[in-house]
Amino acid sequence: MRRVEFVPGSVARPLPDDSYISDSEEAFLVSFPQDYRDFLKRHGGAIPVVGTFVADSHEWAIDRFLCLLSDYRDNPLGCYDIDVTWSQLFDRLGNNPDTLGAEMVPIAILFAGDFVCLDYRDSRDQPSVVVWLHEQSECFSPVTRPVAATFTEFLDLVN
User: FRET partner for 151 with CA separation of 20 to 30 A, picked from 1, 9, 38, 124?
Assistant: First the structure.
């Protein structure tokens, strides 16, 4: 796995522990892959030094990875909390209003307002990684571009 470099001091604190990550999974009715859980505990909310990747014949730029904050209301980085972001986008991140739990979970904000997401629509156990296109998506009609089969494969793409 390629090591992504992050801007010093950009990690959102406090970092989540296993218990808090499990609580978020329970709220979304998903299981985060272990590699992503480990990432959240070390680099949640971090800003990559470069943060570009190529997928679907397009170069994308990561502004910041999202985080899980137990105190998002009182934290200056609370707007980058996964729960906060998902609650603002939930009706545009899924195909079916009757689905229980999240169909896609945002994990990074991209330059110009798109998001990198864990996509659970094809598999509740092994989410793929996609780019969600905010300008093209409508309520219960998300438009995505494939990026990687796993979170680790996604990180390997990031410069």
Answer: 9
Long-range CB contacts for residues 93-101, cutoff 8 Å, separation at least 24? 93/117, 93/132, 93/142, 94/121, 94/140, 94/142, 95/121, 95/140, 95/141, 95/142, 96/140, 97/140, 100/29, 101/28, 101/29, 101/30
DSSP 73: T
Phi, psi torsion values for 154, nearest 5 degrees: -60, -50
Q: Cβ neighbours of residue 4 under 8 Å, at least 6 residues apart?
A: 43, 48, 51, 155, 158
Q: Please give the helix or strand (H or E) that residue 105 lies within, else none.
A: strand 104-110
Residue type, 29: L
Q: How far is CA 80 from CA 53, 58, 66, 84, 148, in A?
A: 20, 24, 5, 7, 23
Pair 64, 81: CB distance under 8 Å: no
> Which domains, and CATH codes, for the chain?
18-157 (3.40.1580.10)
For residues 67 and 39, give the distance between their C-alpha atoms in angstroms, rounded to a whole number: 10
Q: What is the pLDDT of residues 60-98, one digit of tens each?
A: 999 999 999 999 999 999 999 999 999 899 888 888 777
